[in-house]
Amino acid sequence: MVKFVLDGVGVELANAFRRIILTEVPTMAITEVLFVENDTVLYDEMIAHRLGLIPLTTDLKNYNLPEECSCGGQGCTLCQAQLMCEVHAENEQKHVYSRDLESLDPKIHPVNENYLIAELGKRTSLVFEAYAQLGRGKDHAKFQPVCSIGYKYFPKVTIDNSKFSSEEEIDEFLLKDHTKLFKKVDGKLTLIKDYWKGPDFTDSIANHAPPGAVTIDFEPNKFVFTVEGTGSLPLKEIFTKAIEIFLEKLDEFEDQLKNVTIEPIISKISMRKL
Ligand SMILES: [Zn+2]
Predict the structure, then answer these.
(1) End-to-end CA distance of the chain
(2) Any idea which architecture 1-25+145-274 has in CATH?
(3) CA distance 221 to 9
(4) In this structure, are strands 146-159 and 214-229 parallel, antiparallel, or unpaired?
(5) CATH superfamily of this structure's domain 27-140
(6) CA of 63 to the centre of ligand 1 (A)
(7) Could you tell me the distance, in angstroms and rounded to a whole number, from the CA of residue 81 to the centre of ligand 1?
(8) Rounded to the nearest whole angstrom, what is the distance from the C-alpha of residue 68 to the centroid of ligand 1?
(9) Domain ranges for the chain
(10) Model confidence over 55-76: pLDDT tens digits?
(11) 13 CA to centre of ligand 1 in angstroms
(12) Ligand 1 center to residue 106 CA distance, Å?
């Protein structure tokens, strides 16, 4: 999980950044499974669904989105990775894990090798071929590169030590402060380093201090982002790709604006009023 500060932008841009990461940054996921043998109690569709939800490491440089590939989305080595699974249980029950998926491309593999896929009874088998492709979160949540992403306004905390009548009053406040974001230095109340990484400030904290001693407000154009990736892509690559996509969208918007004719509706309305 990563926390960082986005400064100097409005809430609309902060939210655009969040939504592009969630819905537009592509990742690899299994989209097709060809079952050869399935003796488990699970239907083929259920296993295929589970396989689709396994986060796979993604190589954005060497794979195309199927709709942008020269094969027209039919599936080729430029837009599709193949993974094989062959597990046979002999005289005892066996579990099939994500580590049993053998990828033909070493760059594409499950992020974690311990995802349980199915259980096999004695003398049963699970054999299949799976195909992974790039996709976007707006088409299916399994392609989202992050588990969670959110932001909050950057807290602006003002401390007026003159409002405390004694050091004991500061000690009393620190005892009631469940956030542990404050500390006492040289007899004065102060904030801890990197306090913005901690839990949220609320007015109830300020209410424990004498009136005016602690004031909590928020910076209007500064945000604290919290992001948790699935492991498909490094977070740095997710952010870089999101900005790249955002700039592409702006260019596209600019191009489309050139072909739009805007009629002077406002002047017509004001004419009517006259
Ligand atoms: Zn292709």
Answers:
(1) 61
(2) 2-Layer Sandwich (3.30)
(3) 5
(4) antiparallel
(5) DNA-directed RNA polymerase, insert domain (2.170.120.12)
(6) 8
(7) 10
(8) 8
(9) 1-25+145-274, 27-140
(10) 999 999 999 999 999 999 899 9
(11) 34
(12) 19
